[in-house]
Write a structure and sequence with these properties.
Helix content: over 70%
Shape: flat
Strand content: under 5%
Largest sheet: none
Distance between the termini: 56 Å
Order of helices and strands: HHHH
Length: 115
């Protein structure tokens, strides 16, 4: 039974380590995406993340978490806008709804089959 609990602890610690790495990389991505923060402050945060990783990550999330979410939301909206523009360009200026309606009319006419 002792071996079972050793395996459970390895799984728990592995999960916590991977969660920490995800938070760390999200913080680093946010640091470099923030154009309002000076280079010296970015370097200070990185040094803090190296020497006092858990504490500095916690402080960063508390102090800058709100802005972090806003920057991520803005980035997601930009990416969605670019994807929509690309789809419009490929579709020849038609919206997805128009494309589906055109495809449905072709299917009803017998010009295309379901296969």
């Amino acid at each position: 039974m002792d071996n079972f609990w050793d395996i459970i602890w390895v799984v728990v610690w592995s999960f916590l380590f991977l969660a920490y790495l995800m938070v760390l990389f999200q913080i680093l991505t946010d640091l470099f995406a923030d154009h309002d923060l000076s280079g010296w402050l970015k370097a200070t945060w990185i040094i803090a993340l190296i020497f006092v990783p858990f504490l500095s990550a916690l402080i960063y999330l508390i102090a800058r978490g709100q802005g972090m979410g806003g920057r991520q939301l803005a980035s997601d909206r930009r990416a969605q806008g670019q994807a929509d523009a690309y789809i419009q360009q490929v579709a020849g200026g038609k919206s997805a709804t128009q494309e589906i309606a055109d495809a449905k009319s072709l299917l009803d006419n017998g010009s295309i089959t379901r296969a």
